[in-house]
Sequence to fold (1460 residues):
Amino acid sequence: MVVAQQMNKPEYVERTKNYLEYLIKNDWTLSGAVTDTKGDRSKTPAGQAHPDYYLHVVDRNKDGIVVKGCKMHITAAPCCNDIIVLPTRNMQENEADYAVSFATPSNAKGIKFICRPSRGERSPNEYPSSLPIRDLNEAMIVFDNVFVPWERVFMCGEWAYAILLAYTFATFHRFTAVCYHIPIVENLAGCAVAMAEMNGISNEEHVKDKLVNIASYVETIKALAQAATLSPVRYGEIAVPSPLITNMAKLHYARSYHEVIKMVQDISGGIISTLPTYRDWENPETRPYMEHYLGGNPKYTTEERLKMVAHTHRWVASAESAHQEMITVHAEGSMETQKMMIMVEAPFKDYRDLALLAAGVEIKD
Amino acid sequence: MVVAQQMNKPEYVERTKNYLEYLIKNDWTLSGAVTDTKGDRSKTPAGQAHPDYYLHVVDRNKDGIVVKGCKMHITAAPCCNDIIVLPTRNMQENEADYAVSFATPSNAKGIKFICRPSRGERSPNEYPSSLPIRDLNEAMIVFDNVFVPWERVFMCGEWAYAILLAYTFATFHRFTAVCYHIPIVENLAGCAVAMAEMNGISNEEHVKDKLVNIASYVETIKALAQAATLSPVRYGEIAVPSPLITNMAKLHYARSYHEVIKMVQDISGGIISTLPTYRDWENPETRPYMEHYLGGNPKYTTEERLKMVAHTHRWVASAESAHQEMITVHAEGSMETQKMMIMVEAPFKDYRDLALLAAGVEIKD
Amino acid sequence: MVVAQQMNKPEYVERTKNYLEYLIKNDWTLSGAVTDTKGDRSKTPAGQAHPDYYLHVVDRNKDGIVVKGCKMHITAAPCCNDIIVLPTRNMQENEADYAVSFATPSNAKGIKFICRPSRGERSPNEYPSSLPIRDLNEAMIVFDNVFVPWERVFMCGEWAYAILLAYTFATFHRFTAVCYHIPIVENLAGCAVAMAEMNGISNEEHVKDKLVNIASYVETIKALAQAATLSPVRYGEIAVPSPLITNMAKLHYARSYHEVIKMVQDISGGIISTLPTYRDWENPETRPYMEHYLGGNPKYTTEERLKMVAHTHRWVASAESAHQEMITVHAEGSMETQKMMIMVEAPFKDYRDLALLAAGVEIKD
Amino acid sequence: MVVAQQMNKPEYVERTKNYLEYLIKNDWTLSGAVTDTKGDRSKTPAGQAHPDYYLHVVDRNKDGIVVKGCKMHITAAPCCNDIIVLPTRNMQENEADYAVSFATPSNAKGIKFICRPSRGERSPNEYPSSLPIRDLNEAMIVFDNVFVPWERVFMCGEWAYAILLAYTFATFHRFTAVCYHIPIVENLAGCAVAMAEMNGISNEEHVKDKLVNIASYVETIKALAQAATLSPVRYGEIAVPSPLITNMAKLHYARSYHEVIKMVQDISGGIISTLPTYRDWENPETRPYMEHYLGGNPKYTTEERLKMVAHTHRWVASAESAHQEMITVHAEGSMETQKMMIMVEAPFKDYRDLALLAAGVEIKD
Fold:
């Protein structure tokens, strides 16, 4: 809606408003499909080996448009009622067919989901979780000549605005990214604190140093998220958390996540990876040995320690934790995209003018 | 006053109130003298080669106390009307004489200042600054049996509260540290932006990457300072910026400062250090060569570029900038002291309980 | 044997020689069992909740000794003919029973292996590997009152030498660690180079910067391993790669590994994690879509790209890669143990004397 | 000579040989002048506001050539007998006049040195050094239509070889850079060890951690320098230390130098910057106070501690140390130039082929 207003096309504003009301009335969930498969990244959409590496309009008539292409890495897509499609990058004049945005029911004709299951380990070797295990699946959504009626088309050919739409989406999306990761990193910090206590190393200087670093990491994300909401900018009628601070927060989160994982792995000990399986714990022949030998700080029972080991394993040394590293690096935009937005949003001119002034040099622009 | 209330001694509360009114009435400036000379850091105050490495009470009578010792690194001390003295660390029961806090006129009998001038370069070789150069001097203040009347004594023997006083002071002091460094780092960022522009390298990818990192550094300090004020804690009647976020901000500032200096040095080029002297610029025989050869981006004159080079030299490659690095590391407490306060203030128990809960382990304390 | 000589006990020297000949004659493989389960790390072996958290002698007679305890994280143990047991840390005088070293057949009476399978994903969802997948298993070895004849006992009660034995073992072990990781990190570098090429981003400045950092990481490990062999020290008759450089190499490897993983994940793209399963590739209904949409640089076929994606997934985003991170942090000693050895081995006195000399201060020790 | 052979011009080979014999016979010192003033770095030599930002040939006749331009940052130039000039970068076909290399006496007609004194502090405030203070000066060398006879011209118009000459020079130059910095960083390490001892903090865990990091830094430089010499490449008849390892060593040195400075500053304490002046030490009124209060570990006298403080000040907190930071960043090429050479020299193809092989993908080039 923000971008629709800027394009100065009343029909787009009207359609986005109608669509928003429709979503609210039906209480529908949406998946946002942005990332194209992209083919050879050194080529533009129009310069690829075939025209479909970026989703594009292949036909249009008085009722609507027909689109073809494929969107990748769409989390939770098959569980949503509707899909909203946005362009993933800036477009040139000869790429107007790629500057397209629309909404469509997830079960429209021509839409295919190729999904993959979550990567968690669920074998009887694994210790049961005390909480229900909920995971997100990821889908590749193929648009095989899908028809979209005009009332659901929000951009079609306005190539100069494609980047604005991608950029505006990223601002919102990145703020949610920062926020939903807060409990994740708090849990990581908690694994480190609990494992240090259970291993009896809480008073080691190097452990305290690592815990301080982990806490600074966590609390900086929280403080930046808070600061972003307290320094909003206005996009038309909508107040948006500061894009500068939001991108800094996301970059801070992503840049140091692996280092935090390393510290938690270090504090937790090798047992995180080499813990005998749950089948051995259940086996009356082997369990007494595990009971006897795998205890730590006597404040906790061996079983409590092993539950914590298994939980920490899941978060720092498993298929799931490896996937979480990938999410950190790529979801809601890679670190390079955050740098691009900081490059645009940071007050470089103010810095420069302050230094020029202090140096006694005239400011020329 | 905050600590006086906690010690539950009405006379201390009364005296601090009176002293505050006195300061306000006279509009006096104070220097805060905390850091002792400390001798051998592996020894406690009472275990040193002589008893004076930490300031202590050597006599007391019905009128007041007599103190002996020396406080170090006291910025701007000789320009202040009064000195307020605080203990620098925790004390043990046998160190009650070291648990002393008081105010005294700077010119009281027995006080000696051994000052050192600022470290700036002021020879005719240097390019003149467009702004007045103001520097801070540093003093070692010797208390050679100085008498302090009881109405100016705020702690005397309450050894168990010494650390609380030091800690409370640090919280306030560190917040000012974070704030007064903001324009300093904005100026550093400005030097980088201006030198990049004048050298014609603003569009180099590695330069943009460095500028983004510098901006993230600067804006994170600002966002954390803001977040600290928006999450205050209460010390009695006084709202204090969050000690946790304040210490994180100071640690962030101190930890990455040298890295930022390195990036500014890198962008600015070797000329920051090898620039011919101002005497050569004034010399009609050499100036034309400098004029001809030392230009950069033609948007600026050679003289403008050289002014910026000299200004940047001062901030990243001079005696002053080296001193600034030291201030960053040591003033308002070293990085280890910030880590100590983060260790105390961070919600480690909350993190742990979250992880225990998720792991299905009972919380026992 | 190195330590046996230093203990000045001819029988130990004799036994180690005999055992070495025996191993050579039979061409047997050994597993080295060092790490105890350790219980509460804030307690010494003698101060634990029960006496078995560190392996110890529970009986001795004219024929040999009986030992009890458990060794953890023993890679490949069940595939070895013999186990050689060493103490894991320094011991005090009251812990003489814990200062014990011996060899025993893996199938001796009282030895129990509790093994865990490797953590790789082997479901039909996974792309087949072009190379045989070989993984190491890890065992917890319980010594449930195991008898060891004197001719296989190499230390028994010489508590003061326990740390020397652990330390000497670590020196050898850590050098092998450095060497066997070289092809692993070369493969990681290769994944980054190949994925960059296949994605068409080899000429992006930030990608080149990451590739340079990855190459520096890899080649520094190689250069340090080489330098360690070229600066050997002598342990009795045996030339040992420089313990200083070996520990630096291991620390360099471990410290930056996660950062390298992050860079490979970044270059490779989100598809490493969200790639549809191999079953979808084999399914004639979905394969054409994958074929059409998941291509990259046309120099390679889609299938070749997906093979590389699957291979890279295995090394940077899978259960195996997460386990590899743990190995990096903990196997052959954690980073703190490497720092301890660098603290012992680095020429700090030489550095200090050079500085004292330059400062004009007399050298007193 | 290496490049002369590759250019396949016998006269250049002949001239370089003759010149080498001439230098040896006279035992002359040379300064190498490479870096041009460069003007606007976003422009090529031929695209600048005037043609002289890069040194170039302005005339040529049967006796020789006439050159104009200016070389910057030339250390020790006025103390050398001859100057040897090389191009600083790659050149295009239309920049053949800039592809010029020659030797000239330092006092040839038209050569002007604009020098700057070293940046050390030498006032009576400073503590005297126990060693003679030797510093390098830096010169800007103007070539104001300087004639060079043909027998001293080693390149003139062979634009395609300009980069090769710069590159070959850099390889040699960078290896000397790595080597001459070794005693500098050993001295830094020594300052940290000595100050830790004198302050009584050698056994603090965070200090030990910093000392280990400093030692790893120093010894990695040494090990890489050694490894570079042991893996030479051949440039024609000359064995050259491995350019890959040399550049890695230089990059390692430059990248972490500021971090090491920070650690030495941290360990040394604020007194490094706030130490009262030498005049106060010589003043009988103030010296007793300094003597009494500025002691540390009683193993050393106060005077010895202050000598060490003054020495450490010089190396980590002075105009000289700030200049040393600049040298680290810029001398013998900036970090970006080292990355460029690592990009060229690292075995990226080998890495890639290993990964392709492991992934089962055919190697196509």
